[in-house]
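for the writeup, i need someone to sanity check this before i put it in the appendix. the sequnce is what the collaborator sent (i think, or maybe the updated version? ugh). structure was predicted straight from it, no edits. if anything looks off just tell me and ill rerun, i have time this weekend
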Amino acid sequence: MSHDQLMEKVHFVDEAQFCPRGLIMSTHCVESVPFRFYKENIMTTDAEKSFHDIRLNREEDIYIQLNFKAANISYQYAAVLEENPFMPNLLHINDEDRIIAEKFLQQSIVSFQKEKLLSQIDEALDNHDISAFRKLTEQLKQL
């Protein structure tokens, strides 16, 4: 089997534990398990057994999850990352859920900004600082 044929069997995914043959590897700089291999419903942390299984079953697809610092902003990793076809439907985020989450986040930010401005306005009033009061109330109106 050539290297190209082998690479066709390798898939980089998130949540590899849901795959028929999943491999999770983590660097020291993250708080994830260092190594796990999943085959059907069996999980092992023994790297030798795992790589032996991979060598013996080269014709089967292998799904690899890499955990490393700033993985979510690595364009190189994003370029090879595939959607996990074995991910349970409950874990998929659809566009509607994403929009709801974005709205919630935006509302939370505005609420935090309002609370902060109100606190600063109270402080300006306590200090009899008219210019700060006017500036802060104007900022509050803009929200």
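The domain at 95-142 is CATH 4.10.810 (Virus Scaffolding Protein; Chain A). The two ends are 62 Å apart (CA to CA).
thx in advance!!
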